[in-house]
Amino acid sequence: MDNIYLPRIVKIEDIYEEAPDVRTYRLVFEDKKHAESFSFRAGQFGLYSAFGCGEATFCIASPPTRKGYIQCTFRKTGRVTSALSELGVGDAMGFRGPYGNHFPVEEWKGKNILFIAGGIGLPPVRSVIWTCLDRREDYGDITVVYGAKKVDDLIYKNELSHWEEREDITLVKTVDPGGETPDWKGKVGFVPIVLEEAAPRPDNCVCVICGPPVMIKFSVKVLEKLGFDGDCVYTTLENKMKCGVGKCGRCNVGDVYICKEGPVYTAKEIKRMYNDF
Amino acid sequence: MAAEHDLKKKAKELLTKGEVKVVIGFGWNRAGTRTTPVFITRPEDTDRLVFNPLCVNNLSLYLTRKFKDIQALGRPAIVAKGCDIKCIAVLISEGQLKREGVYIIGMTCEGVVYRQELWAGMNPCTRIPEDIMPTKCHNCDVRNPHISDVTIGEKSIFTPPEKPAGMVFDRIKEIDRMGAGERWDFWMEHFSRCIKCYACRQVCPLCYCERCITEKNMPQWIETSAHPRGNLSWNLTRAMHLVGRCTFCGECERACPVNIPLNLINQKMTLIVKDAFNHSPGYSTEVHPPMIVFSPEDKEDFIK
Amino acid sequence: MNKKLLRRDRIGLLIEGVIKDGVFIAPSISERQVVYGPVKEASEITFDYIIPRNSFKDFLFPQTEPVARFKAEKDAVLLEEVKPRPKETVIFGVRPCDAASRASLRSVFTWDFKDEFYTKREERALVITIACTKGDDACFCATVGISPEGSAGSDILLRETEAGDFTVEKVTGKGGSFIDAHPHVFEDSVSGCALKEIFNPEPIGGVNLEKIKEWLKEKNHYENPLWAELSRKCVGCGACTFVCPTCHCFDIIDEGTYASGERRKNWDACQFEYFTLHASGHNPRDTQYKRWRNRFMCKFNFYPEKFKSIGCVGCGRCVRVCPVRLDITEVMAEISGQPGQGGS
Amino acid sequence: MEKNLPITAFEPKIMAFVCNWCTYAGADLAGTGRMEYKPNVRIIKLPCTGRIDPLFIIKAFENGADGVLVSGCHPGDCHYTTGNYHARRRWIAFKSLLEFAGIDLRRLQFSWVSASEAIKWVDIINNITDEVKRLGPFIEYKRLKEGI
Question: pTM higher than 0.90 for the full model?
Answer without folding.
Answer: yes
